[in-house]
Amino acid sequence: MRLVIYTPAYLKRWLITPQYISAFSASSFKLHSTQTFLQLTRFSLQLTSFS
After folding, report:
1. 3-state DSSP of the chain
2. Residue 14 has what DSSP assignment?
3. What superkingdom heads the lineage (predicted)?
4. How far apart are CA 19 and CA 50, in angstroms?
5. What are the C-alpha distances in Å from 26 to residues 17, 35, 51?
6. How far is CA 25 from CA 15, 19, 28, in A?
7. Structural domain boundaries in the chain
8. Calpha distance 47→35 (Å, rounded)
9. What's 18's DSSP letter?
């Protein structure tokens, strides 16, 4: 019964928020790729310092 009551509001919210969700996922992807790039740069710097 609760599911039937809550579903319309949830659907309305879902119809409003896709742009927010896509913006959040894009920003988190940028953050993740930046961290990966920094880790790769650090790793290559360690390699060059060892050689």
Report:
1. CHHHHHHHHHHHHHHHCHHHHHHHHHHHHHHHHHHHHHHHHHHHHHHHHHC
2. H
3. Eukaryota
4. 47
5. 14, 14, 38
6. 17, 10, 5
7. 8-50
8. 18
9. H
Half-sphere exposure in the Cβ direction for 3 (13 Å, CA): 0
Query: 42 or 49, which is more confident?
Result: 42
Give the pLDDT confidence of 7-48 residue by residue, as tens digits: 666 666 666 566 666 777 777 778 778 888 888 888 888 877
Predicted local confidence at residue 11, as pLDDT: 62
Q: Strand, helix or coil at 17? A: coil
Quote the tokens at residue 13: 């919210």
pLDDT beyond 60 at 1: no
What token pair was written down for 47? 């390699």
- The pTM assigned to this predicted structure is 0.38
Tokens 């310092």 -> residue: 49
